[in-house]
Amino acid sequence: MKKIGNSFAGVIVGFVLLIAGSVLLWWNEGNNVRNIKTTNEVSKVLIDVPSEKVDSENEGKLVATNGKIILGGDVVDSLFGIKVATAHLEREVEMYQWDEDIQTDSDDKKTYSYKKVWSESLIDSSEFKEGGHDNPSSMPYKSEDFTASSVKIGAFSLSKGQIKRMPACEELALADEKPARNLKIFGAYMTSTEDDANPKIGDVRVSWSYNDWEEASVLAKQKGDSFEDYVSKSDKTINRVENGILSGRQIVEKVKKENKFTKWLLRGLGLAVVFAGYFLILGPISTIASFVPILGTLVGGMLTIVSFLVGSVHSLIIIAIAWVRFRPVLGVALLAAAAALFVVARRLTNKNKAQK
Questions:
Q1: Listed residue (26, 4, 9, 2) closest to 274, CA to CA
Q2: Number of other CB atoms surrounding residue 61 within 10 Å
Q3: Cα(32)–Cα(13) distance, integer angstroms
Q4: What's the pTM value of the predicted model, to 2 decimals?
Q5: I need a labelling partner for 306 at 20 to 30 A (CA). Which of 2, 121, 223, 338 fits?
Q6: Half-sphere exposure of 19 (CA within 13 A, CB side)
Q7: How far apart are CA 272 and CA 300, in angstroms?
Q8: pLDDT digits over 8-30, tens only?
Q9: CA distance linking residue 340 with residue 241, whole number of Å
Q10: Which DSSP category does 219 fall into?
Q11: Which residues contact 86 (CB under 8 A, 6 or more apart)?
Q12: Which residues are within 8 A (CB) of 253 and not within 5 positions of it... i.e. 6 or more apart?
């Protein structure tokens, strides 16, 4: 009876997932259209300008420029005596702690296990089910990021926001560094552990990463000798800093590829959420049928197919309606495709009923 109760409770979750998936699909299509309009607009209005000189006539216009990165000085993490010639430096602090893993079986019975992990955030052990796995209540240092006081491309100065968006992806080697604050150096870490191979709970390790770009390209609105956000007519923001030498058109093409990837990723996620919603809504049928082993397997498999088909129809209808709203011609064609899928799903459902 508990199994049946859980399946009916899953129906409520299923309806929540249907709503969430539908909202995600609708928003994604509208956002995609705004992205397309924005990149079309940007392609028409952007101006490629040389970085050697700032032209006041381009004030307030969308400009693209590129060149060698000129730093105003080293970036310093004074707490640990780290100094790097970079635009952006990040410090990561981790502590060795207990972590609780909870597993739930088909009968809702929970089992607890514990393992030691390096974690950048504090793990609260006061809520652990079993005692004897106590973590410290605070960390001696915090993760932090640092930016150069000045980063220029030719005569242009990057804004603080642009500098911070330059990713710190290169690991800082500590071979030539001196350990600070009574720490030791093991590999890429300054650490409080005595034995790198056998750390203890409460041990701390610190590492750094930095931006290693030598050249950069910018696509943004010119403001004085710097840049700010360009806001399109579709209310989308353009303010890009890219590694290497790229023209404005090349940056736009990169933006288009990113937008396309995001569009299909969210479409897939929306479909998966809607499918899960229908699967949970139909769950009680599968649960009841499972009391007869062979029948349960057949019905479960059929309901999975039906859930996928109905979920696909549901998703296509939401996308089509969104397209009718944002892209009318394509929307009508997609509605026709959804109708065809609906017919297939209905025939499968009727066939399943007939077999019973």
A1: 26
A2: 14
A3: 28
A4: 0.81
A5: 2
A6: 5
A7: 18
A8: 667 888 899 999 999 999 999 99
A9: 45
A10: E
A11: 71, 74, 75, 148, 168, 210, 211, 212
A12: none
C-alpha to C-alpha distance for 134 and 201, rounded to whole angstroms = 9
- 144: part of which helix (H) or strand (E)? strand 144-147
Q: How far apart are CA 332 and CA 339, in angstroms?
A: 11
Residues 148/168, Cβ–Cβ less than 8 Å: no
> pLDDT, tens digit, for every residue of 132-191?
999 999 999 999 999 999 999 999 999 999 999 999 999 999 977 889 999 999 999 999
Sequence letter at residue 155: A
pLDDT in tens, 149-162: 999 999 999 999 99
pLDDT at site 286? 63
In whole angstroms, give the CA distance from residue 183 to residue 350.
71
Find out whether 295 and 42 touch, Cβ atoms under 8 Å. Answer: no
Tokens 């309606």 locate to: 321
Residues with Cβ < 8 Å from 318, sequence gap 6 or more? Answer: 22, 25, 26, 270
pLDDT confidence of residue 289: 55
Tokens of 322: 């969104």
